[in-house]
Amino acid sequence: MDMITEIVSSFFEALNLIFSGNSFVIDIAIRSIYISGFATILALSWGIPVAMLISFREFFGKNIIKWIFNISLGFPTVTLGLMLFLLFSRSGPLGIFGVLYTPTGIIIGQAILITPIMVSFSVSALESVNPEIRNLAKTLGASDFQASIAALIEGAKGVSLAIVGSFNRAVSELGIALMIGGNIRGFTRVLTTTIALETRRGEITQSIAIAIVLLFTIAGVNIVMSLIKRLWLR
Amino acid sequence: MAAIKMIDLKDITKEFSDTLALNHINLHLNNKGISIIIGPSGAGKTTLLKILALLMEPTSGQIFVNNEIVDNKIRHSLRRRFTMVFQNTLFFNSSVHDNISYGLKIRNFPSDEVEKKIGDILEQLGLVELENRLMSELSVGQMQRVSLARALVLEPEILFLDEPTANLDPENNLIIEREILGFSKSKPVVMSTHNTMQINRISDSVAFLSDGLIIDQGEKEILEDPHDDRIKRFVAGETGYQKNNY
């Protein structure tokens, strides 16, 4: 059997594996979504306030901070994984927290990885909002904070793109999940680490099935966010 | 602070990176009628209105309300008592209803009172049928009427308007002027314009602004019998006077 035939055959076997409700596939997919989902929420919790600060305030060094976030967009996941491994390892400065080889460790690592995406894309979205919107909110009685929230709502379409982009980056990265999570079966094994493992073991059908699930997950999140944008952010 | 009786600007200067927008402005506004700030484009009218409405801090100088200096402690609470209508039809990207309700909700009015006030103001400005339309679907004249409704519904103690009838058709121009005149019977209005005919129709006092300086202030006669060459040139239509204004 040549390679093309094997791939096509594996593809159909993979679809069968997915739609027959294979518990192995479903378990890994759910773990990936919840780990990357939490990482996205964590990055959102600090990324949006930072983006609002950069977009709505004038301060010394603002452009340097924007530049740092922009160049961090391409930070290699393996390098970040190595740095976090050294921090979280038993003898490392943060070893006492015991997060190495746990889902919490992956969540923290992915949150750090996607923070530049969250901040840079959100800043870009918020800076495109008419700056007079904050003045409009203020003259209608809003405080500085409420006026910033009004501007955030105006830029919500762009910010939602930052959230989707961040989740996509988190769910599809390998370096941190492998180095911080350790790819422990039933505990820290996620979609990307499974694809790497199954491919190395020659289980191409399993690999393709998981890869398709990964693509479906990314597509699903994008569809949900598009629906939210269409219904809520007209 | 008790009812606002007067606003004074003392030696106000505003600089933007390389531009001097306002140059040592002194201005006294009392709580009566319609005060108009007139001048050519780029004179500093919008900047002056934003400073008066406490939306912008001056580079130097002081603002006094009822002879009390405006500092950061009272700025927000005082700002809630003013409302400004902006020159460019500025709106939240939502419906007419949501735009008008914003200020009421910020003030924590109960929802039934919010709806009643919105219903009343929409009727007053002939906007009832537009209540659920998106702002982006409206004409410029309709947008400006919604902007005015959004301000009036808050019952401000002073209304600031930045060229509220610029680029409007005669019908919308008439509606806006009627509302401004109605409001000014009980509360003061401060507005900018470069339409000298409008000054003849509605002004009680006038200040002429050019290159960030108040050249003259008084009643409308300062334009009918100008003493300064810059006002003469403006009235003659040489520096931004719109001859086809309604």
Entry summary:
Helix content of chain A is 77%, strand content 0%. With 234 residues, chain A is mostly helical.
Explain this structure to me?
The complex is a heterodimer of chains A (234) and B (246). Chain A has 234 residues and is an all-alpha fold. Helix content of chain A is 77%, strand content 0%. Chain A has helices at 3-19, 23-56, 62-71, 77-88, 103-127, 132-139, 144-154, 156-172, 175-181, 191-200, 204-232. Chain A starts with a helix and ends with a helix. Chain B has a domain at 1-81 and 188-240: P-loop containing nucleotide triphosphate hydrolases (Rossmann fold, 3-Layer(aba) Sandwich), CATH 3.40.50. Chain B has 9 helices and 10 strands. Chain B has helices at 45-52, 72-79, 96-106, 111-124, 140-152, 170-184, 196-202, 221-224, 229-235; strands spanning 6-16, 19-30, 34-38, 60-65, 68-69, 82-85, 158-162, 189-193, 205-210, 213-218. In chain B, strands 6-7-8-3-9-10 form a 6-stranded mixed sheet, with helices on both faces. In chain B, a hairpin with a 2-residue loop joins strand 4 (60-65) and strand 5 (68-69). The interface between A and B is medium-sized, with 18 and 26 residues.
Tell me the span between the first and last alpha carbons of chain A.
52 Å
Question: What overall form of chain A do the CA principal axes indicate?
Answer: globular
Task: Using the CA coordinates, give the radius of gyration of chain B.
Answer: 18 Å
Provide the residue-averaged pLDDT of chain B. Answer: 90
Please tag this protein with its features:
heterodimer, A: 234 residues, mainly alpha, MetI-like fold, 77% helix, globular, B: 246 residues, alpha/beta, Rossmann fold, 6-stranded mixed sheet, 4-stranded antiparallel sheet, 9 helices, 35% helix
SSE order and pairing:
The complex is a heterodimer of chains A (234) and B (246).
Chain A: H1 3-19, H2 23-56, H3 62-71, H4 77-88, H5 103-127, H6 132-139, H7 144-154, H8 156-172, H9 175-181, H10 191-200, H11 204-232
Chain B: E1 6-16, E2 19-30, E3 34-38, H1 45-52, E4 60-65, E5 68-69, H2 72-79, E6 82-85, H3 96-106, H4 111-124, H5 140-152, E7 158-162, H6 170-184, E8 189-193, H7 196-202, E9 205-210, E10 213-218, H8 221-224, H9 229-235
Parallel strand pairs in B: 3-8, 3-9, 6-7, 7-8
Antiparallel strand pairs in B: 1-2, 1-4, 4-5, 9-10
Helix pairs in contact in B: 3-4, 3-5, 5-6
